Automatic annotation (TrEMBL):
Main localisation: cytoplasm
Transmembrane regions: none
Species, as recorded: Strigomonas culicis
Pfam family, one: Cpn60_TCP1
Name of the protein: T-complex protein 1 subunit alpha
GO terms for cellular component: cytoplasm
Family indicated by similarity: Belongs to the TCP-1 chaperonin family.
Locations listed in the record: Cytoplasm
Length: 387
């Protein structure tokens, strides 16, 4: 939210991000509550102001109806998702056909169209009133959809097909052929949604699938003056969505702003003085290394790192002496005012598992480097030395 694009509208987008992640809350096969980030998509729509960006409880795509005669809104939709071409069936390149009578060539072409027509009619007979395909739809085939009041959408991304299938309970069909060689379309392959419709936003159209059987789906529609701004918004929102999703998955947070590192550094420094062996040096150096995080935060904010770290150590030293009930353990840096504050009360938080993993990975990396005994050095060529 601190990016140069979203900074002035942080309140709007922060609420939008939190609502999007909490709306896709689900329980996995192991009984754990998860917040899948991939269930939230970001749609970029050129035009208008950032303030007109909105959250849609459903799945949206930058697509439109295949033909204007099709219905723009379908209620109680039964959706067929197919991953094959709905244009005229073409014979394989390796197939040779010998025609003695030229008049039969037209019959072959007509049969190619009839095969596609029969496939569409099988879907409609199964109860489908929305047909989505990752391929194209023949112009002549759209007539049958229009006559049956069916909404057809073509050129849907395969990734979007899979996500729609997951939220609507549909099955992505790759072929209609069964074991006996006949083509059939089973009604159980259809997905359900309360509404599928086309919305006109700016200069583009958008297909929205809402009211699905599984609510694990949300879309943030971003509006902006140009595509540079929209792409920057997408990157910032992606970071924010991941941060909120990981925080919700963690179910535990710690105070940010260097509070954890400073508290751990003071505790380890005091613990090192209780050791009478050479391990005291290793623990003391580990405690000193932890202060790199708050020092870097202060330097990046153009603040006096030495003065702030000294004050931060004093606060956490008092917390260590007072016990675990002291509010001083939540004291961290306020990089906007250059002072110390209670970051738990200020809402500056970090997921606890992420903090634990960072410390573990950094320690493992340091141990790996310390285990190196030899260093192979390649000396430069003598000719290069005299140049």
């Amino acid at each position: 939210m601190s990016s140069k694009i979203l900074n002035n509208n942080a309140d709007l987008f922060s609420k939008m991000v939190v609502d999007a992640i909490t709306s896709v809350k689900t329980v996995n096969d192991f009984g754990d509550v998860v917040y899948p980030r991939k269930a939230v998509s970001v749609l970029l729509q050129h035009g208008r102001s950032l303030n007109e960006s909105r959250l849609i409880q459903g799945f949206a795509m930058n697509l439109s109806r295949a033909a204007q005669g099709m219905p723009s809104n379908v209620k109680n939709a039964r959706i067929a998702l197919v991953d094959f071409d709905l244009r005229a069936v073409k014979m394989k390149l390796t197939m040779n056909i010998t025609i003695n009578d030229p008049s039969k060539a037209e019959a072959i072409r007509q049969r190619e169209l009839d095969i596609t027509k029969e496939r569409i009619q099988k879907m409609i007979a199964a109860g489908a009133n929305v047909i989505m395909t990752s391929w194209g739809i023949e112009d002549s085939m759209m007539k049958y959809m229009v006559d049956s009041n069916v909404l057809g959408v073509r050129r849907v991304k395969k990734e979007d097909l899979r996500r729609i299938a997951k939220t609507t309970g549909a099955t992505v069909v790759h072929t209609l052929s069964d074991l006996s060689g006949e083509e059939v379309f089973d009604p159980k392959w259809l997905g359900t949604a309360a509404h599928v419709g086309e919305e006109h936003i700016g200069d583009d159209d958008m297909i929205v699938v809402s009211g699905t059987s599984s609510a694990v789906c949300a879309t943030i529609v971003c509006r902006g003056a140009n595509y540079f701004m929209l792409e920057e918004m997408e990157r910032a929102l992606n970071d924010a969505l991941w941060a909120v999703a990981r925080t919700c998955d963690a179910q535990s947070v710690v105070a940010g702003g260097g509070a954890v590192e400073a508290a751990l550094s003071v505790y380890l420094d005091n613990f090192a003085r209780t050791l009478s062996s050479r391990e005291q040096l290793a623990v003391a150096e580990f405690a000193e290394a932890l202060l790199v995080i708050p020092k870097t935060l202060a330097l990046n904010a153009a603040l006096d790192a030495t003065d702030l770290i000294a004050k931060l150590r004093v606060e956490h030293n008092q917390s260590d002496a007072a016990g675990s009930q002291s509010r001083h353990r939540f004291i961290g840096l306020d990089l906007q005012t250059g002072e110390l504050r209670d970051n738990l009360a200020a809402g500056v938080l970090e997921p606890a598992p992420s903090k634990t993993k960072s410390l573990q990975f950094a320690t493992e990396a340091a141990i790996t480097i310390l285990r190196i005994d030899d260093c192979v050095r390649l000396n430069p060529d003598e000719e290069e030395q005299y140049r």
